[in-house]
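Notes to self, Cysteine hydrolase:
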Amino acid sequence: MNAAEKTRHLAAGETPPPNDASKSPLARQEAPAGTALLVVDMLGAWSFPEADSLLSRALAIAPATQALKRRCKANSVPVIYANDNHGHWRTDFRGLVEQGLRSGGARARLNELLFPDEEDYFVLKPKQSAFFATPLDMLLSHLKVRRLLVTGVATDQCVLATVLDARMRDYSVHCPSDCLATHDDRRQAQAVRHLADVLELDVTPSHALDVKTLGAIDQR
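result:
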């Protein structure tokens, strides 16, 4: 669409239709079965308030998340990292990971386990949702993704906000429960129950998920 056409839509109070993704590709190839893996807030230096109470739980789900990522990549399912920048507006995504690696201890271990590969995608988010004020929706459109596997922390905060935004945009969402964590067991149980019972999402653990048949997953 040219500038004149966009102006006509705006003057009429209409939202201009999206650009043809094929004419301005932001991704190298489409996602098989229209599926992508989204990893929320697992990287960085973990220097925010209450980080310590969440860090050990994030580290506990990292092996399952890493294993799911490997299976996704083996089946050409793209991996997208969405991470809070914690107000560090002069730091890019790679700088965020480097900070985590330099932090030592559990923080470095977490960044090592989930270290992004060269072909992975990433977005920095200023708020809880991975969609708010980020290019995530546009990236997913160019990847032709309609189904998200959402993993990360915290289940009842940034993960929940991201899931709600995804559902409002009509994405199918799967939340493998063994790849999610929040600050304590009670909150985790409540959050997973909310995802399953209220939002009616599939929370099947990642080890029981057949990545090869993701196209057959039925969003309830």
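- The first strand starts at residue 35 and ends at 40.
- Residues 156 and 191 are 5 Å apart (CA to CA).
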